[in-house]
Amino acid sequence: MFADLDETIKQLLVAEVPVKNGEVDIKFDQPKREWSARLTKPTINFFLYDVRENVVLRRHQWEQVAGNGNSAANVARLKRTPFRLDCYYMLTTWAAEAEDEHRLMGRTLMALFRHPVIPAERLVGNMINQPYELQARVASHDKLTNPAEVWGALDNEMRPSVSYIVTVALDPWREVTGPIVRTFTMRARQAANDPRRRRLIPEAVDVEMNFIGGTVRDGGRAPQAGIEVAIKGTGYFSTTDEDGRFWLGGMLPGEYTLVAWPAEGKPREKKIIVPAAEGDYDLEL
């Protein structure tokens, strides 16, 4: 992943600086004294010195993955949201003359500042399939605040260095599949009025509320979005989503009439029992 990120940054600079005919090297090495002594041409260097999770963008939760085709109509596909990592680079430029170094640094910063989001056409390898845009920050005021300490650790002479931070997604999770839960029942009973003994009163009456869901399809079995669905004679009302699904609740047990209004023609009705053993609340227009 990090090699693809390096190549993505390189392709961005090759196109934007621009770098032609190999007149300038773009490297991702640790800028130690031995390394800099071997340079033979002007060089732009991005040293990846730190990687950490972006806690501001953290979203530890499950999200639904879109399915394909009617075969996935009754299957739920879930996956944890990926981690967001901040990749911290130290940008430096190298040349025989300070004037050339500063000119190269200015051209590089202009190119990076123009792209707070790395363009899709510059992405390489795993960066192409990233679930989020590659956001980038240049010259953050709270990074590389002690350059003397950095260059002392690298055993090299101090020179201008700029932070460049790219946020990427790391997805270690596997997709989980299972049947879609479209109907469930919620029961409640009065508890004993004693904070020290949380128990249900045996003779209390259960209160049962039912929530149902189904899918509206046309004669060709294609899901129908934007269809109004209701329980006749009640205030329960819903509209199908882009996959033709609807949800209604909470209803007491009993017999009801499910009604759907197509864009053209008469309403379609279906007798249902709530809760039903099979839980078939689908409608066909």
The low-confidence parts are: none
Largest sheet: spatial strand order? 1-2-5-7-6
Taking the sheet with the most strands, its summary is: 5 strands, mixed
Q: What is the mean pLDDT?
A: 87
- Pairing-aware structural class of the strands and helices? alpha+beta
From the alpha carbons, calculate the radius of gyration and give it in angstroms. 30 Å
Total number of beta strands: 16
Strand-residue fraction? 25-35%
> What pattern of helices and strands is seen along the backbone?
HEHEEEEHEHEEEEEEEEEE
Please give the share of residues in helix.
10-25%
Helices, by number, come to 4
Approximate shape: elongated
**What distance lies between the first and last C-alpha atoms, to the nearest angstrom?**
48 Å
Please characterize this protein's 3D structure.
It is a single chain. The protein is of the alpha+beta class and about 280 residues long. The chain is about 15% helix and about 35% strand. It has 4 helices and 16 strands. The chain has helices at about 1-15, 35, 100-115, 145-155; strands at about 25, 45-55, 60-65, 75-80, 85-95, 135-140, 160-170, 175-180, 185-190, 205-215, 230, 235-240, 245-250, 255-260, 270-275, 285. The strands form 4 sheets. The protein has a 5-stranded mixed beta sheet. Strands 9, 10, 13 and 16 form a 4-stranded mixed beta sheet that branches.
